[in-house]
Amino acid sequence: MQVTETLAEGLKRELKVVIPASELASRLDTYLDDLKDKVKIKGFRPGKVPAAHLKRLYGRQATAEILNELLNETTRKAVEERNEKPALQPEIDLPDGDAEAILSGSADISFKMSYDILPEFELIDFKTVEIERPVVEISDAEIDEQIAQIADNNKPFETKDGAAEDGDRVLMSYLGKLDGTPFDGGADENGQLVLGSKQFIPGFEEQLVGLKAGDEKVIEVSFPEDYPAKHLAGKAVTFDIVVKEVQAPGEVKIDDDFAKGLGLEGLDKLKEIIRGQIESQYGAMTRQKVKRQLLDKLDEVYTFDLPERLVQSEFDGVWRQVEQDMQRSGKSFEDEETTEEEARGEYRKIAERRVRLGLVLSEVGEQNQVKVTDEEVQRALYDKVRQFPGQEKQVFDFYRSNPTALASLQAPIYEEKVVDYILELAKVTDKTVTKDELMAEDEDEG
């Protein structure tokens, strides 16, 4: 094998590789010699099939397979001998005109391989990184508020005489019509709705106020412009309503008996569970803020050339998602007060940031031997499987038989473990914030 460097510009590399035709011929002879003891051909005893006959029957197919193996093998070897780390699998350019001559064994294998190498950079001392961790102190009032909400959702309703009022529950049948024709999903014989809950489309609940059991009414409403069902979005419709019963809400006493009705030992246990749920919720938001701060700081510190093809691959993935989201929402770039060119520029920056931070985190993990265990991947797989009830076996088999898909489960685990490693070294100080401040920060960050 002869390797000649034809381009070394920044992170870009191009090599010309020549493999003598004799190498392909030698491997073909070895392949056919092994094959003659395995194949059964009418008119020949096992192991006695002439090589020339085998070559006529299997030579072209075998040559193609061996050629593919040779290209992969020499590509890998060429990179290893140069002690380089390609950002992606090198691209191979084998001129179409040479293929026939190569397969016939009359020409050397000459091809071009091109790739981007990974950039080299020094890791900073992470002890110099300062992170402010927002922490929310959970008050008894917040816990009581959550319990009051649970009580409100579990309050009893009793049949009442008279007109429906805000807070009452209306049992009814309804039939939705668009231009006088019933539409899918717009009917229910046993619907129920708590007035004021805002569960139905705007304007629906308000028109039920004042109705009594046995009343019939046709109400007119319009679906929101962003309604998921495109054929109904923004459309004016009618609903034929028949009120079957009106129920008034009862009172709920929050005490041990209430908690026991939820299957718990008592009110203290309910408060303990609610506190734990709130802590988990705020903890996840705090983690998000801390990670965002860390990544922002790393993005500020590290500036190095990026492998163009890696960036382009990341951008392509981001842009596909953008186009899919816009198609689903029915919006245009003009609706977002931008242009496609401007949007591409912004998402290009996002792709570059992701690639840069991904390379930094990967280097941190590699230098410090951060590993993802089989048990961690297994837990992630089971979590994914549980998201598809009834299809557990198909999902499990898909990931088990697809290394790329399984790697997609491993990647976020690895990233979180590397982030944890850095945060253990960084100077992290707690800052007490309110719930609203934590939520506001989340909205500001998008």
TrEMBL record:
Gene3D superfamilies: 3.10.50.40, Trigger factor ribosome-binding domain (3.30.70.1050), Trigger factor, C-terminal domain (1.10.3120.10). Keywords: Cell cycle, Cell division, Chaperone, Cytoplasm, Isomerase, Rotamase. It holds the Pfam family Trigger_N. The keyword Transmembrane helix does not apply. InterPro entries: PPIase_dom_sf, PPIase_FKBP_dom, Trig_fac, Trigger_fac_C, Trigger_fac_C_sf, Trigger_fac_ribosome-bd_bac, Trigger_fac_ribosome-bd_sf, Trigger_fact/SurA_dom_sf. Its EC number is 5.2.1.8. Residues 167-227 form the PPIase FKBP-type domain. It catalyses: [protein]-peptidylproline (omega=180) = [protein]-peptidylproline (omega=0). It is found in: Cytoplasm. It comes from the Bacteria. PROSITE patterns: FKBP_PPIASE. One of its GO terms (cellular component) is cytoplasm. SUPFAM superfamilies: FKBP-like (SSF54534), Triger factor/SurA peptide-binding domain-like (SSF109998), Trigger factor ribosome-binding domain (SSF102735). GO terms for molecular function: peptidyl-prolyl cis-trans isomerase activity; protein folding chaperone; ribosome binding. GO terms for biological process: 'de novo' cotranslational protein folding; cell division; protein transport; protein unfolding. HAMAP family: Trigger_factor_Tig (MF_00303). Consists of 3 domains; the N-terminus binds the ribosome, the middle domain has PPIase activity, while the C-terminus has intrinsic chaperone activity on its own. Involved in protein export. Acts as a chaperone by maintaining the newly synthesized protein in an open conformation. Functions as a peptidyl-prolyl cis-trans isomerase. Belongs to the FKBP-type PPIase family. Tig subfamily. This is Trigger factor. It comes from Stappia indica.
